[in-house]
Amino acid sequence: MIDPFGRTVSYLRVSVTDRCDFRCTYCMSENMTFLPKKDLLTLEELERLCNVFINQGVKKLRLTGGEPLVRKNIMNLIASLSKHLVAGRLEELTLTTNGSQLSKYAYQLADHGVKRLNVSIDTLDPHKFKKITRWGDLGQVLDGLNAANSAGLDIKINTVALKGTNEEELKDMVNWAGSKGYDMTIIEVMPMGDIGSETRIDQYLPLTNVRNNLAEHFTLEDIEYKTGGPARYTRVKETGGRLGFITPLTHNFCESCNRVRVTCTGTLYMCLGQEDAADLRAPLRDSEGDEAVTAAIHEAIARKPKGHDFIIDRNTPVEPVNRHMSVTGG
Ligand code: SAM
Ligand code: SF4
């Protein structure tokens, strides 16, 4: 699958549910309306769709959400997809998770060939953690991380930089991640979906400032490390750990984009930051064979846009993408 700008699409992110056991302030409003269950692809349909993408050249698959590990019977899907790892058709199967269910699932994930996980933690202060996630419990997530560690999974911590919230703590988190042997990525907050009372401008912290502040405490050496994602990595000399920066706003990362995203209703988004999408559920449900859905995927890839137009400023009060991150997955 090659898009109009010559980029080969080999990375698929699948949001397996829009539901979540947390309500992070930058991601959701407290009173979210979730999709009706009948609109969701069944696990069997999700598997079939993933199989089609793998047949068309997807080599890396990331399950995300919402919270992927709260989807009922999600391990059945992971078990089915892991067969592609064994057969060598898929190079990597990973997840992005809030970590709340890892104590329960870490060993099963490792058994199914998952080698690394992205776990999202924005603070190590239990009170702040509750404030940011509204419903989350830091202790439970840290227990989950320990379980993942014991199961031999490599961990990358995802931390969204939030103005006035975890700004002062990022240095301690870099030290903590380094001491645990976790990679860490700091993410710039993206303007996606209505989040209720807070405004983006109150949350937005440009990563150029974050990096400059961290550079006062650490020696950050640019490295070529790539995971297939959009982060640019540095090596923190003092901890030996890797630290990535995802900067959709201060530095557009679209040139090397190899990704597309499918939602739990089977909608294919060719870009996280654009509205254009293709419905794959109808062609999937309307025929037993895969020809129609394969054709729909290729038609959509032929329209993959060059990049996104995220902007956060006081003159742009509406969210440019009226879709929560939990719909398309991070
Ligand atoms: N629930 C899982 C988790 O939190 O890791 C997976 C889904 S979550 C939508 C994926 C990632 O997107 C998380 O790291 C989260 O912090 C990040 N995220 C959510 N909303 C965001 C926003 N508006 N801007 C930047 N990152 C966001
Ligand atoms: Fe849930 Fe992840 Fe969104 Fe937080 S960031 S509300 S954990 S989907």
> What's the CATH class label?
Alpha Beta
Shape, per Cα inertia axes: globular
CATH architecture: Alpha-Beta Barrel
Rg calculated over all Cα atoms = 19 Å
Which kinds of small molecule does this entry bind, naming each only once? S-adenosylmethionine, iron/sulfur cluster
Oligomer class: single chain
Q: How many helical elements?
A: 11
Terminus-to-terminus distance: 22 Å
Layout of strands and helices, then pairs:
Layout: E1 11-15, H1 43-55, E2 60-64, H2 74-87, E3 92-97, H3 102-111, E4 116-120, H4 126-133, H5 138-150, E5 154-161, H6 170-180, E6 183-188, H7 200-203, H8 207-215, E7 220-222, E8 232-236, E9 242-246, E10 259-262, E11 267-269, E12 277-279, H9 281-286, H10 291-301, H11 325-328
Parallel strand pairs: 1-2, 1-10, 2-3, 3-4, 4-5, 5-6, 6-9
Antiparallel strand pairs: 7-8, 8-9, 10-11, 11-12
Helix pairs in contact: 1-2, 3-5
The structure holds S-adenosylmethionine (SAM) and iron/sulfur cluster.
Residues 20, 22-24, 27-28, 65-67, 98, 120, 326 line the site of iron/sulfur cluster.
